C-alpha cells in the first residue's frame, strides 16, 4: 500500500530535483494535499490572462479587498506577505531593535525566535512543561518581568496542537503594553479566532496563511490584520513586490472558491480524530490533543521510528531540540490512505 501511494505521489507532486520527499508520503510540513490540484485549471486559466511582463500591484489591492470583505474588516487593516513567515519577519523588522525582547510560550513555532535572532533581538521562551498546556499566570508573570516589545502566540500551537483561550488573550491584551501577535495559521482546523477583537485592541495583530487549509504552500501567501497604525508601520518594512502576480492570482482564486475547501477541512477533522484514537491505542504512545491539522506524539525510540518511517517513504517531523520535545514526533493529518499507511508502518515497527 505504501509503495502504491508513493507511486501516486510521484505522479501528483511537482518534481523538485533536490526533494527526496518526492518518492514518498509527506506528512512533515502540515500541508493540505487532500484537495490537491482541484483548482489548478482555474488558477492556470487566470494566470494565462496575466501580463507577466508587468510588476505586480505592490498593494495587492484585489487580494486585500477580498481578505477584508471575508473578515469584515477595513482594507487599511490588512497587509499581505510572502507566506506568514514574511509577516513574522516584518513584525520583527518593524518593532525590534538590537537587544529588544520578544516572549513566546515554549515549545512553539521556530520562526519567531529565528527571525528575532536575525534582528539581534532576545527571545524569551516560557516553558509550558511536559504536557504543553498553556499556563497563563506563569506566562504573564514572565511578560511583566521581561517587558518585551512583542508577544508571539501560535494559536493553535505548532507543534503541540494546543490552544490559548480567548479569555486569556483578552487578559493579555488588557494587561500588557506591547504588541500581541496571534498566529492563526491553523485557524480553519480549530474554528476559533480572535480576529473579531482587532477593532477593539489597537495592539493586536492576527496572522493567517493560505499554506495550510487552502493548500497553497507553494505559492507563499499569508496576511496580517491589525489596526491602521500597526499596518502603516509594517508597510514601511514591506518589500514593494513581495507577492508576485502569480501568488496574488492563485490566492484570489483560492479565496473566491472557499467552498471547495470545506469538505477537505471536514475530512481532516474526522481523520484527526481517527488518528488520535489509532495512535492512542498503541501502548507507550502519548498523543496530545490537537486543534491543528497535525498531531504531536511522544514515545520511546522516536528517532528510530522516524528513521524507519523514512525508509518506508513516510516523512514526518522529528525534533532535535530536546527538552519537553525529546522523543516527540509531529505528523500531519494526511489523506485517509496516507494516514492508514502511516499507522500500518507504525504497527510494523512496534
Ligand atoms: N505560523 C505557523 C504557526 C506555522 O506553523 C507556519 C508554517 N509551518 C507558518 C506560520 C508559516 O507559514 P507560511 O509562511 O507558509 O504562511
TrEMBL record:
Pathway assigned in UniProt: Amino-acid biosynthesis; L-histidine biosynthesis; L-histidine from 5-phospho-alpha-D-ribose 1-diphosphate: step 7/9
Keyword Amino-acid biosynthesis: yes
Keyword match Nucleotide-binding: no
Modified residues (N6-(pyridoxal phosphate)lysine): 212
GO molecular function, one term: histidinol-phosphate transaminase activity
EC number: 2.6.1.9
Catalysed reaction, written as an equation: L-histidinol phosphate + 2-oxoglutarate = 3-(imidazol-4-yl)-2-oxopropyl phosphate + L-glutamate
Single biological process term from Gene Ontology: L-histidine biosynthetic process
Keywords: Amino-acid biosynthesis, Aminotransferase, Histidine biosynthesis, Pyridoxal phosphate, Transferase
Cofactors demanded by this protein: pyridoxal 5'-phosphate
Span of domain Aminotransferase class I/classII large: 24-345
Oligomeric and partner information: Homodimer.
Family note: Belongs to the class-II pyridoxal-phosphate-dependent aminotransferase family. Histidinol-phosphate aminotransferase subfamily.
NCBIfam families (UniProt xref): hisC
UniProt name for this protein: Histidinol-phosphate aminotransferase
Gene that this sequence comes from: hisC
